[in-house]
Structure formats: structure tokens, C-alpha cells
Write a structure and sequence with these properties.
77% helix
């Protein structure tokens, strides 16, 4: 039986992809602000950073909650394969694009998220609390593997929607962006 992907699934996948990429961008701010110049953080900035940490924790929990959606898109992509338009667009940014290899990377990402996501969420929540309640300035930074896998998931969802959605033909630009995000995630994992 073919995996059904609805319009609501497509929209949810776009939202989830955005959360993945947004988390990586927020982590850059989080990490740089809690890094070397942390002694210069004002009380106002501590409050803003605490809100940022809570937002990151909520987004990471939402990505974890979207696991079933990612798995459905993985199944649909394996059933249908990469659309020829998508495959052609990916060749400029993804090494040897294939549905099988992409889904294997996504499975690894989901396994890592399952194993480590809860701890990362708890760490972010604890660091947010420390910023407001204690005088301690915690270190920032999501694990490099988490950042890489978030980008793998985020890029994959753009690619999968463009390849399996029956009512949509994604532009080459959108597929190239998704492929670039996916490939960047893989590059981070290689160096992590």
C-alpha cells in the first residue's frame, strides 16, 4: 500500500524543515553570545538568551515530535524514488543523490535525535534557567552531530516534498536549496 502524503503533510514538512534550519541559525547566536565574551552579558541580555534557550528547546522537541512525519516522507520517497526533475537538480549539490542513500542518512539522523534529543532539550532548559535564576553563564552550543543531523532532516524534507508531492512541482531553486542544506549537514557530520 502506497504511503499517502496529504497537503497538510506537505505544509507540516515545510514547517518542520524550517524549524531544523532555524535551530541551527539560533545555535550560532546562542553559542557566540555564551562564548568568549560571556562576562559582558547584561541582565537584559541574560533574559533574552534565556528566552532563546527555551525557544531552541521547544523547537528541538517539536522536531522530535515530527519523527512520524519524517518517516512517512522517507517511506514515500523509497516507494516512488526521486522524481527525475528533482534528481537532476540535486546533482549540482548532493554527491550521488539517491532515495536509498538519503533515507539511510535520515534514519541515522532520527536515531541520533531519539538517543540524544531529550538530553539536548533538558540541557537547553537548564541553561535557560541558569541564565535567569543563577549568576552562572553556561556554555552554549548544541553538539555538532545534532547540528548536522538537523540539517540532514531539514534538507531532506524539502527534497522529499518536491519529489513525492503529487500536486507540486518544486522549482530547481527550491530543490537546490534543500540539497545544499542536506549536503551541509553531511559535511558537518564528517568533521564532527
Amino acid at each position: 500500500m502506497a504511503t499517502e502524503i496529504t497537503l497538510d503533510d506537505e505544509v507540516a514538512a515545510a514547517d518542520l524543515s524550517t524549524k531544523c534550519v532555524h535551530l541551527v541559525a539560533l545555535d550560532e547566536t546562542w553559542t557566540s553570545r555564551l562564548g568568549d565574551n560571556s562576562s559582558q552579558i547584561t541582565l537584559w541580555e541574560r533574559d533574552s538568551l534565556a528566552r532563546l534557550g527555551k525557544e531552541m528547546a521547544a523547537d528541538l522537541a517539536a522536531v522530535h515530535a515530527g519523527r512520524d512525519l519524517v518517516e512517512r516522507f522517507s517511506a514515500a520517497l523509497l516507494e516512488r524514488g526521486l522524481d527525475s526533475h528533482v534528481s537532476q537538480a540535486l546533482k549540482s549539490v548532493v554527491e550521488n543523490p539517491s532515495a536509498d542513500s538519503m533515507v539511510e542518512h535520515v534514519k541515522s539522523a532520527l536515531a541520533y535525535l531519539e538517543q540524544n534529543g531529550g538530553k539536548e532539550v533538558a540541557d537547553l532548559q537548564q541553561k535557560a534557567r541558569l541564565l535567569v535564576v543563577d549568576s552562572e553563564i553556561p556554555g552554549g552550543d548544541l553538539a555538532a552531530h545534532m547540528l548536522g543531523y538537523l540539517l540532514v532532516i531539514g534538507g531532506f524534507l524539502i527534497i522529499a516534498v518536491g519529489s513525492v508531492a503529487s500536486s507540486v512541482r518544486f522549482s530547481t531553486a527550491a530543490i537546490t536549496v534543500g540539497g545544499g542544506i542536506f549536503q551541509t549537514g553531511l559535511a558537518i557530520l564528517v568533521t564532527a
